[in-house]
């Protein structure tokens, strides 16, 4: 039996949760959010969309299948969604340090320590989730006895997309069709899925003027934080629309394309973070179960007359995608690349490549 050091989670409303540390022993702060997925913690922790956030997992037992080794194929990680953990902390009810999986090489706790990320176990995650649902996502900090006091960190004050985007142009694949991926914090499975479709993929930084190069289509990736920080990206998207070549956005990409189409973005009370979000195609009875991770949504009432809502969330009625009525511009708020999560909507990648 391991003995873990006592640690506190302190919320901005004054609530304090006491638990035990199983990760890096350092103070940190960020926005406390929750995810209801049962599996997929290696993928979630390395998802750049969690930059600046302290992640609460509602499934009670976490860590039982460990963490895989880092390996690459053609410059892309085989099992993670980026090269590092982006969450600022991890909150669990019951951590399992004994793991069993054919591909595991270390425990979740050891991985967090290597990456310098705090982890707390022994927290009543049901109560914490109820608080976040009632009050909304809020700022929090992880503190140990004897630590110097730290301020609450609000990730909305920073351009998180600039922190997680690639810093230079990166190319993948050898296909004849050339696709630009605007990296706003792209999950690597977007890269894998596009390369699988046989395209030449050009991954560019969030503020790169990709319109000066030749391409057949544009993919706008997911990413963290407030999309209002990405005005320069929106300007480049509007310029790309003049070429009338296919444009497809995912998650943050849905919000940026919507801003380019005239819509406003607003912050959700506690966001959509799970592997089981039902979305309905507008004008039909077809429903898909989707993986999601976002804290903002599109106000579709502000879309231009040439645009229309494409999908709607069946839980709360929020927008889950838009499309142009006559041109090949469209986007979804959910993650068709999944990882982790259901694969119901991976066909979007096939359809996008066929379109170009």
Automatic annotation (TrEMBL):
**Which stretches of sequence are listed as region CPSase?**
1-177
Which keywords does UniProt give here?
Answer: Amino-acid biosynthesis, Arginine biosynthesis, ATP-binding, Glutamine amidotransferase, Ligase, Nucleotide-binding, Pyrimidine biosynthesis
Instruction: Specify the Carbamoyl-phosphate synthase small subunit N-terminal domain's residue ranges.
Output: 5-143
Q: Which reaction does it catalyse?
A: L-glutamine + H2O = L-glutamate + NH4(+); hydrogencarbonate + L-glutamine + 2 ATP + H2O = carbamoyl phosphate + L-glutamate + 2 ADP + phosphate + 2 H(+)
Pathway, per Swiss-Prot/TrEMBL?
Answer: Amino-acid biosynthesis; L-arginine biosynthesis; carbamoyl phosphate from bicarbonate: step 1/1; Pyrimidine metabolism; UMP biosynthesis via de novo pathway; (S)-dihydroorotate from bicarbonate: step 1/3
**EC number(s)?**
6.3.5.5
Which residues are L-glutamine-binding?
A: 49, 223, 225, 252, 255, 293, 295-296
Organism superkingdom: Bacteria
> Kind of enzyme, top EC level?
ligase
Role noted for this protein: Small subunit of the glutamine-dependent carbamoyl phosphate synthetase (CPSase). CPSase catalyzes the formation of carbamoyl phosphate from the ammonia moiety of glutamine, carbonate, and phosphate donated by ATP, constituting the first step of 2 biosynthetic pathways, one leading to arginine and/or urea and the other to pyrimidine nucleotides. The small subunit (glutamine amidotransferase) binds and cleaves glutamine to supply the large subunit with the substrate ammonia.
> Of which family is this protein a member?
Belongs to the CarA family.
Subunit (UniProt): Composed of two chains; the small (or glutamine) chain promotes the hydrolysis of glutamine to ammonia, which is used by the large (or ammonia) chain to synthesize carbamoyl phosphate. Tetramer of heterodimers (alpha,beta)4.
Q: What is this protein called?
A: Carbamoyl phosphate synthase small chain
What is the organism of origin for this protein?
Answer: Proteiniphilum saccharofermentans
Name of the gene this protein is made from: CPA1
